[in-house]
Design a protein that fits this description.
By secondary structure, the chain is an alpha/beta fold. The protein has helices at residues 3-9, 11-16, 18-52, 79-90, 109-121, 137-142, 172-181, 189-213, 219-229, 242-249, 259-266, and strands spanning 55-60, 64-65, 72-73, 98-103, 126-130, 133-134, 147-150, 155-156, 162-165, 168-171, 240-241, 253-254, 279-281.
Length: 287
């Protein structure tokens, strides 16, 4: 698209301003590419929404790369994400289903909790679609919906609380076990405080998951799910693949991921410019 304009400028202008032209092209091409990707994603969301009769929301976190420096920048569920997803849920009519395409390593517990409870409260059918993984906070969100559609090799993960400081992150269950095995005078004050917070975090997560599962399964079933996902039985990155999820959650887990979801994921490649929003949706329009 630049060639006809450049030819009209003449060779002298091109030679004297070659660096300006070079940086102009370097600046414009990424903008055009981003615009193309945004429009392509929107078309797919509209197509899928019409096909499924739902509002399709994305919560997709891929690793980004900072401009020029090439430094990996991990993305997680944050308050900005929860604010946008809650807005999408709030503006969706009560009788319209919601499909949430979820691809995330997890993130802030508060943000994931807000999204999970808002989804649970939506009266119409809620579905989470997982093409690759929804770990930690992503799993908490998935537990709140009516149906989970995941690729046969996609993964959910434990939602056991993790507590940390500047020196690292520690599983809450491990901190509690540590205090049970050591005498109080053998443990420093900082660890005692962390262990106290760990016990509270475990109790809070237990109660939260029971609230999310309320109405979906009886007490015994909920207890089994909490044992597997909350108790710290596994490491925090332990994958629950589709067969594991079916065994624990039952028939609400399906593996027929719509083809449009895989096409959509191709359009979420790493970018080298400003941050791409993790949440996008197309609101319902009046007929």
């Amino acid at each position: 698209m630049f060639e006809p304009i450049l030819l009209q400028m003449g060779p002298e202008f091109l030679l004297s301003n070659i660096w300006i032209i070079f940086f102009l092209i370097l600046f414009l091409v990424p903008m055009i590419q981003r615009r193309y990707l945004e429009q392509s994603r929107r078309r797919l969301l509209v197509k899928m929404g019409k096909k499924r009769g739902s509002v399709v929301v994305t919560l997709i976190h891929r690793q980004e790369v900072l401009s020029f420096l090439g430094i990996p920048l991990a993305r997680y569920i944050d308050i900005d994400d929860s604010e946008q997803v809650l807005r999408a849920i709030r503006t969706t009519p009560k009788d319209v289903p919601i499909d949430l395409i979820l691809h995330t390593p997890g993130g802030l517990a508060l943000a994931a909790t807000q999204i999970a409870l808002a989804l649970k409260a939506h009266p119409a059918r809620k579905t989470v679609i997982i093409p690759h993984y929804a770990m930690s906070g992503g799993t908490l969100i998935a537990l709140a919906v009516d149906e989970i559609i995941m690729d046969p090799h996609a993964a959910l993960g434990p939602v056991d609380p993790q507590l940390g400081d500047r020196t690292g992150s520690y599983p809450a269950t491990s901190l509690v076990k540590l205090m049970a095995k050591k005498k109080i005078d053998e443990v420093d004050d900082k660890t005692i405080v962390l262990a106290d917070q760990a016990q509270k975090a475990l109790s809070q997560m237990d109660g939260l998951v029971r609230t999310i599962l309320d109405g979906k399964c009886d007490g015994d079933k909920a207890g089994l799910i909490i044992e597997e996902f909350v108790s710290g039985k596994y490491t925090h990155d332990h994958p629950f693949l589709a067969d594991d999820a079916k065994r624990l959650l039952g028939d609400c887990v399906k593996t027929d991921v719509p083809a449009e979801v895989y096409d959509l994921m191709k359009l979420y490649r790493m970018e080298v410019a400003r941050r791409r929003p993790g949440v996008e949706y197309v609101p319902v329009t009046e007929k």
